[in-house]
Amino acid sequence: MSVLKESKNLSAMPRNSDRKPETFMQHGTDMDKRSVSVDKRGKKTMYAKKSMRNGKDFEVYRFVFETAIEIFEEIFETSRSFPKEKTFLTEQIRKHARLVCTNLAEAWHMKKQKACFINKLSDAAQAASKTQLFLEYSSKYNYIDHGVFRKLDSKYEDIFDILCDVTRD
User: Fold this and answer.
1) Which domains does the chain have, with CATH numbers?
2) Looking at the predicted structure, is the pLDDT value of residue 142 above 60?
3) Rounded to whole angstroms, how far apart are CA atoms 63 and 55?
């Protein structure tokens, strides 16, 4: 009982998780590009400051992600008209179109870790490639219109081109 009485006013107690890391310039380095962050355990982490390019990167990511979402929505609506006996095709095309969006979102969150970022972009490209394959199959057997196939396929190719440009820098 005494423990409960003592812990009634928990909101008044300072929490370590509320403490933000202190940021200061590291001595002896280029002060415009490098900073050191000290977390609550005293661990120092060096990181590059945000550059002007991050705004452009965000715009590119947003465009690519929104395009992938549009493609997914169109695939979802289009695949509703697939024959009932082709549920495997319907599930797979939706799954891989959704994975493109998921992997792009995960890549954006991993952008500070170059290897993880590129790995997630690669996963998104693989999912897009599988989606394109299922779209091609659907077009071949007239489950979707050839014009719809060409439009969706060209949008995926545009995404690939943009992502290749981003990862080259």
Assistant:
1) 8-48 (no CATH), 53-168 (1.20.1440.60)
2) yes
3) 12
**Tokens representing 4?**
């409960």
Residue 97, pLDDT above cutoff 90: yes
**Order of strands, edge to edge, in the sheet holding 22-24?**
22-24, 34-38, 44-48
**Reduced 3-state DSSP string for the chain:** CHHHHHCCCHHHCCCHHHCCCEEECCCCCCCCCEEEEECCCCCEEEEECCCCHHHHHHHHHHHHHHHHHHHHHHHHHHHCCCCHHHHHHHHHHHHHHHHHHHHHHHHHHCCCCHHHHHHHHHHHHHHHHHHHHHHHHHHHCCCCCHHHHHHHHHHHHHHHHHHHHHHHC
The pTM of the full predicted model, rounded to 2 decimals, is 0.64
How many other CB atoms sit within 10 Å of the CB of residue 22? 10
Residue 165: predicted pLDDT: 74
Q: What is the pLDDT of residues 36-70, one digit of tens each?
A: 445 555 555 444 444 445 677 778 888 889 999 99
Q: How many residues does the chain have?
A: 169
